[in-house]
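Why do we care about 3D structure at all? Because function follows from shape, and shape follows, mostly, from sequence. That is the central idea of this module. The next example makes it concrete: a single protein chain, its amino acid sequence, and then its structure expressed as tokens.
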Amino acid sequence: MNLLKRYLGILWMALAPFSMYYLVRTALAEIAAKPVIDTKIQWGVFVIVFFPIAIGLIIFGFYALKGEYDHLPESSEEIED
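And the structure:
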């Protein structure tokens, strides 16, 4: 299971830039098709909101690849300060 977590870490790290590229490409195509202010604001908000989510996916994938999730605590006593 730990090996699967590490492989999925690679997947999350690759998924973030790919999805950002696809989102920006789609936004630019939609804005070019209908260049009104409503469309620009809508797609601008989508891109701005998703950018930190993509950064979080990269961080999550990095920690999974590093093995930080190999042992998850089962009780409060196992959590280190």
